[in-house]
Each structure stands twice: as C-alpha cells, then as structure tokens.
Amino acid sequence: MGGTVKLEESWKAALSDEFSQAYMTELKSFLASEIHAGKQIFPKGPEYFAALDLTPLDKVKIVILGQDPYHGDGQAHGLCFSVRPDVRVPPSLKNVYKELATDLGIPPAQHGYLESWARQGVLLLNSVLTVERGLAASHRGRGWERFTDAVIAQVNALPHPVVFLLWGSYAQKKAQFVDSSRHLVLKAPHPSPLSAHTGFLGCRHFSQANAFLEKNGMEPVDWQLPVA
C-alpha cells in the first residue's frame, strides 16, 4: 500500500473512511517495515486488493470467504482459493472442483485460476490480505480483519440479496453480522483435505446459490472455468 491506494472506484468510495483510520496506518507501517527487512510478502503489493478490483461492490452476487493467502512461492494473487494458471491446483480447491462435479456435473478444471468467477460477481475475499512467505497466518491480528469486516458490512448493506458461502468455522465466525433474513447464508466444513469429508463434499452450495440468484431475478454464475 503506497501513499495513495489504488482501488476500484465503487469500493474506494465505500471504504474511504477505513484508509484514514489509525489501524490502517499501523498496518501500512507494519507491511513497509517487513518489506524493508527483506521479508517476502505474498501477494505482490498491486494484488492486495485484487478481489475488490475484479468485483465492484454493486456487482457482488456471491461471497466466498477464505482465511489468509497461500504462502508458497507463486501461489497467491489476491483471490481466495485461486492460483495462477501455471500453478498446481491446491488440495482445497481440488475438493471444491469435486463438489462442483457432483453438484452441477462440471468436470474439474485443469488449472486453479478463478478470475472468471470474480468477473461474474463472486467476491473471492480472504479475511487477511497478506502473508509472509512460508508462514501461514503470519499477518493475522495486524488490522486486515477489521478492514475485511468493513468490506462484508458494505456487502451486507447492498439493496439486493447476496449469497454467502461460508466454508469452515473461521469463515462462519467472520460473517456473524450478515443479515440472514435478507441474504442466503450457506455453511459447510472447509474444503481442506482434513475436513472436506465431514460435510463439504455433498453440500450442493453451487446449485443452491444459483437457484437463489435466479429466484431473485439475477443471472446465475457459470461455474465452469474457461481453459486457461
């Protein structure tokens, strides 16, 4: 984050107050000092807000909440669960693809690049937007959670209903203030290999999400990823 934050205009307007808060100044200082100390931070600076840049606020139809970015080389690029086309598909995402195949008959993609979902209104938001290379959860408690709470609050306040896909207890706790009388909140265990077989596989979230969108006069999401 430089002096002026580059951010898609609708989000910039909605979140402008956050960038003037003390916690965000402290977060910027923390990131600058880590980079100055030679630590590798993922994703790259211009990609911190990629989820917001690809999915303008008024276009959000579905929210998928992750925890923090992948911490391996070349993986994180600012969208939760997603990796670039030439990077091996991570285990959790393989389970997401398995569920898509069972639920909607969509064959698993040969890559893990989820940008086409984001461009259709699926906000692929991590709770924490940066991580140190090789150290999962290393940037928790530094202020990102407060910022992404503000993101969720803005989505919750939208005039149209939104689907929240909350996989795992962390995501479920994160979205505790979503108004479930207006929005569709679907919960399941995390798709990680450690927990996918305890209820994520078979949850049918993708068909339920599309049925809800259609019922409310919105275009369903085409979950089939293009060949990368």
Automatic annotation (TrEMBL):
SUPFAM superfamilies, sorted: Uracil-DNA glycosylase-like
Domain Uracil-DNA glycosylase-like residue range list: 53-213
Keyword DNA damage attached: yes
The EC number(s) this enzyme carries: 3.2.2.27
Catalytic-site annotation from UniProt: 68
UniProt keyword DNA repair present: yes
Keywords: Cytoplasm, DNA damage, DNA repair, Glycosidase, Hydrolase
Enzyme class: hydrolase
Enzymatic reactions: Hydrolyzes single-stranded DNA or mismatched double-stranded DNA and polynucleotides, releasing free uracil
Compartments where found: Cytoplasm
An example molecular function term from Gene Ontology annotations: uracil DNA N-glycosylase activity
Gene3D superfamilies associated with the record: Uracil-DNA glycosylase-like domain
InterPro entries in the record: UDG_fam1 (IPR002043), Ura-DNA_Glyclase_AS (IPR018085), Uracil-DNA_glycosylase-like (IPR005122), Uracil-DNA_glycosylase-like_sf (IPR036895)
Family classification: Belongs to the uracil-DNA glycosylase (UDG) superfamily. UNG family.
Biological role stated in the UniProt entry: Excises uracil residues from the DNA which can arise as a result of misincorporation of dUMP residues by DNA polymerase or due to deamination of cytosine.
Protein name: Uracil-DNA glycosylase
Organism expressing this protein natively: Hoeflea ulvae
Organism lineage: Bacteria, Pseudomonadati, Pseudomonadota, Alphaproteobacteria, Hyphomicrobiales
